[in-house]
């Protein structure tokens, strides 16, 4: 595309490397010149259209998918340092051809089976009476539910139950509670920390068939649905009615809303719409003994007693089984813009964020960052082209608003200030879907690029924003030539760092230099060793780095109160008790 | 003020009754005509300036104050049907001259003292050792802390403790726990339901001296402070730094942030920034036995185990004493507009809300409604003038955004659509502080007007938005001439109805027609019998109308787990156990 503005260029015009992107410090001036023409106030910024394809060398554009498997989330940031390579993808129902068998969790990890009963034929008959046709024992079908999608942990459950109603869930749990049978609640099985599959032979209780929308209020935007509704289907449902789901995830094509709530999923809309603790209005939960706890209100305000639903948000199925969700959906934004910018240092990344909050205000919907090594990885391994000049840091700024013209104007002012003050040295902007996705791909495909770089040690941390990158620099110095790459990227707007280290192959000495160092460093900053993925099975041992003993004790007391026999998702979330 | 547009009026121009307000259906047309002049795109809508003073007959403009006592919140909506007239105002430290003595709670209500110890001189000496100079036994000083600000309940505590640190709170509670002494945590004592004062002789544990800001992060907007910080002072503090508190209340001049969190206060910014369950990032809480539970994280994301802080938000001091709060502050809006509109029916009130959500999008910050009887009350008793033509309903729409010009444009489009489609029949808009306050006063002074109308029966309910007004109409028919007025108003955007009934004097038969009818009606709609004010002492008996027995049982179990001796804020929140 030949830019009509090219001839009007002035000092400060930036040439993006490799792709011929143009961004001009003086676009404000150009607008003013343009204001003499018939279109005095352009509804859309002219320079927004100056775009060329990001993928210069033929790599296909991917958005929120990974390795071409659209069911699978792209955010592979907390597989755990001990996980096998996430390059091994899982098909939806069985072991992919040629993929190595996943080692049983009980063989790989030091974990002892608790004294639960073993499912008998009598139990199976009882389940069949509760759920005629809903009891699965076929090993082929069970395989997909026994293995997590990262293919790092594997249970050996012999039975999968597929209830359709909360009453059926209640009858199942009442029975299991009575018979001391352990139960693994499972949604879309897209978790990152081994929380969604059995560790031993726990009964898998799937929400797959609990996929009914119960009600939607088109005035208030309140959606009430069963726990097994797939997030993407709910998104489509509410978008047709002028609303959006307050959360969005890479795994949206598979994950269930019940699982999202059970794991307190963060995701891509967190910066804008906040936590599920704020957007979930009500829950129906079946407790370990089969009691149905009906807190499925659709009210925005309700101060009658303790807010019990909060207990279950983020409890990873260990305190109760979420069977229905009431959630507040915000109105659908009419305009989305993405700017991809180069910053000279991390201080400028922070200052650009402050400036964005000030000038973009209510339309700022994402602020992601990545360092130069991340860009090297995606350009080198995935052959994506950087749309901007080489920089120490890059940020992706997304706006979502109700009026395209207004949003563009706000964005242009923000960019003008960022450029003129030197916070940003180069940048490009997209408004249409294809281009938005291409820019997002640069950020979202880092995980994939990392997995092609070698063995990956992954950490998903929350840290005070101003210290967010210090750990990366620190580790780079500490590890020296032991590591191929030490990279930092993530949801800066949420204080969420994805720290990744690669080496040619798994190295115990490198691991020893990483852990507990990373956890201790995070603890000193009062950070979180699991920002958004929970603890599940694989991270339950590191809880104490982020929570004091008094908190751990109270969590254990709550578990004992709500699930005295410990049958719900055992071996998860809380550390094994001595 | 003579409107320059008056001569350009076209059919559809509306004349507001009594005040000479003009609003024109064809202002879009006028803009277009105006666009031929030099100012092609007005930064601010011209018609926004067409304003005349609201208060036609000399009543002073009041905003978020009531009866001239600025310490006292104006939202008197759930004093409870049995409360004495809220017209009796309380001074800050003692009984106002001429005001009747408040009857002791134990004399007015059927409540029995639980077998706690009585404070001895030995206990006082122990407290003095923990808090040198912080032990108050002067009856004059104690009076203000024994009586709620509505002057409806009164305890007889003999000691008020004023710690400065959480360690001091911990030592006090450890002592009280050991000695079986009951404790009434108290913040600003601005609660509506008698939750903030002792029922008998509980020790009053005040957060007044715990008023230190611990930290503020000017990048992330995270404020960490002690529980006794006054909301208004925090607002000022963060506003000077470019942020706002995510909550605002009529009582902000007195209420403490710890009390706000303990009661899960709603307030005026709820529609925009949501619940404290979403905006509070961390808490420090001292448990009943003196254990300090440090969950005072400043992280937006932390999925390491159960989110314990949620337990204490809205638990009204019955599960622990909040000693410090970490809260996420949003950026300060640069522009605020208020539109006051007349609607021909409640269906139109709802449709206007839908339209506002669509066209105002991210800048909609309040949507309040009031019925014609409310307007009659404020015009008749307070001599305020209605700024718009007489209508069956009125709505107040507030926008808050980062750019005045954009916000005005969105607002004008919304109003044009509302007017042209007949949803709104008349209206006026304000942008400057004085006028904003005057429009807000029409909505906020309804409580005051009601209290001048006679004895007031007050209910604060959450209901599904589409049924919100049905209860008002229903009651009007049911009560007939027994009631002077049956009025409905409130935070429609949050589904929160303030239902008020007045009669010449207290009438047992009228009360019998109201209760349990109102609670049963609310329960049938799965509504909440306390939307934003909690249960405290006065409403704890009606919890079961909004929560099922399973929920109540779990609440009681949580209370027993966290406070096995029941020393924390006894007689509050949960119903008395049989």
UniProtKB/TrEMBL annotation, chains A, B:
Flavoprotein as UniProt keyword: yes
GO cellular component term of the entry, any: mitochondrion
Recorded family membership: Belongs to the FAD-binding oxidoreductase/transferase type 4 family.
Name used for this protein in its record: D-2-hydroxyglutarate dehydrogenase, mitochondrial
EC class (word): oxidoreductase
UniProt GO BP: malate metabolic process
Keywords: FAD, Flavoprotein, Metal-binding, Mitochondrion, Oxidoreductase, Transit peptide, Zinc
Compartments (UniProt record): Mitochondrion
Cofactor(s) required, per the database record: FAD
Domain (FAD-binding PCMH-type) ranges: 153-332
PROSITE patterns xrefs: FAD_PCMH, PROKAR_LIPOPROTEIN
Originating species: Mustela putorius furo
Function as written in the Swiss-Prot or TrEMBL entry: Catalyzes the oxidation of D-2-hydroxyglutarate (D-2-HG) to alpha-ketoglutarate. Also catalyzes the oxidation of other D-2-hydroxyacids, such as D-malate (D-MAL) and D-lactate (D-LAC). Exhibits high activities towards D-2-HG and D-MAL but a very weak activity towards D-LAC.
Catalyzed chemical reaction(s): (R)-malate + A = oxaloacetate + AH2
Any GO MF annotation of the entry: zinc ion binding
EC number: 1.1.99.39
InterPro entries xrefs: FAD-bd_oxidored_4_C, FAD-bd_PCMH, FAD-bd_PCMH-like_sf, FAD-bd_PCMH_sub1, FAD-bd_PCMH_sub2, FAD-linked_Oxase-like_C, FAD-oxidored/transferase_4, Oxid_FAD_bind_N
């Amino acid at each position: 595309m030949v830019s009509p503005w090219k001839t009007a260029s002035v000092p400060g015009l930036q040439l993006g490397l490799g792709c011929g992107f143009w961004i001009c410090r003086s676009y404000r001036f150009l607008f003013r010149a343009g204001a003499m023409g018939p279109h005095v106030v352009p509804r859309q910024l002219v320079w927004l259209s100056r775009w060329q394809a990001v993928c210069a060398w033929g790599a296909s554009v991917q958005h929120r998918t990974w390795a071409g498997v659209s069911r699978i989330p792209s955010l592979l940031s907390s597989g755990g340092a001990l996980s096998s390579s996430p390059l091994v993808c899982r098909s939806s129902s069985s072991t992919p051809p040629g993929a190595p068998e996943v080692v049983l969790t009980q063989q790989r990890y030091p974990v002892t089976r608790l004294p639960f009963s073993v499912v008998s034929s009598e139990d199976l008959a009882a389940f069949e009476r509760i759920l005629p046709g809903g009891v699965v024992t076929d090993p082929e079908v069970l395989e997909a539910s026994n293995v997590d999608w990262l293919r790092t942990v594997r249970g050996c459950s012999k039975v999968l139950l597929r209830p359709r109603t909360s009453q059926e869930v209640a009858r199942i749990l009442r029975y299991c509670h009575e018979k001391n049978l352990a139960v693994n609640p499972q949604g879309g099985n897209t978790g990152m920390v081994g929380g969604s599959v059995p560790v031993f032979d726990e009964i898998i209780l799937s929400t797959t068939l609990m996929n009914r929308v119960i009600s939607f209020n088109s005035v208030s935007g309140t959606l009430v649905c069963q726990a097994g509704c797939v997030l993407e289907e709910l998104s489509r449902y509410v978008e047709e009615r002028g609303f959006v789901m307050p959360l969005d995830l890479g795994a949206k094509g598979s994950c269930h809303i019940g699982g999202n709530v059970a794991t307190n999923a963060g995701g891509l809309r967190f910066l804008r719409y906040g936590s599920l603790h704020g957007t979930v209005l009500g829950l129906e939960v079946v407790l370990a003994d089969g009691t149905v706890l009906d807190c499925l209100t659709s009210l925005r305000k309700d101060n009658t007693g303790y807010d019990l639903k909060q207990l279950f948000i983020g409890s990873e199925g260990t305190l109760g089984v979420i069977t229905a969700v009431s959630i507040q959906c915000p109105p659908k934004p009419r305009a989305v813009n993405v700017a991809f910018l180069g910053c000279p240092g991390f201080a400028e990344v922070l200052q650009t964020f402050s400036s964005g909050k000030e000038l973009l205000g209510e339309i700022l919907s994402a602020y992601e960052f990545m360092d130069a090594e991340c860009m090297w990885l995606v350009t080198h391994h995935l052959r994506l082209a950087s749309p901007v000049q080489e920089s120490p840091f890059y940020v992706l700024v997304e706006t979502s608003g109700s009026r395209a013209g207004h949003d563009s104007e706000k964005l242009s002012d923000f960019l003008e200030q960022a450029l003129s003050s030197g916070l940003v040295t180069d940048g490009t902007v997209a408004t249409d879907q294809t281009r938005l996705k291409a820019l997002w791909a640069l950020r979202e495909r880092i995980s994939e690029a990392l997995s092609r770089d070698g063995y990956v040690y992954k950490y998903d941390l929350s840290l005070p924003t101003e210290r967010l990158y210090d750990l990366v620099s620190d580790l780079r110095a500490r590890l020296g030539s032991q590591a191929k790459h030490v990279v930092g990227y993530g949801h800066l707007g949420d204080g969420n760092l994805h720290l990744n280290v690669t080496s040619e192959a798994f190295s115990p000495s490198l691991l020893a230099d990483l852990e507990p160092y990373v956890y201790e460093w995070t603890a000193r900053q009062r950070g979180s060793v699991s920002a958004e993925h929970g603890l599940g099975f694989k991270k339950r041992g590191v809880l104490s780095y982020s929570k004091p003993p008094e908190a751990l004790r109270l969590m254990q007391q709550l578990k004992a109160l709500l699930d005295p026999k410990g049958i719900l998702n055992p071996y998860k979330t809380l550390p094994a008790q001595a």
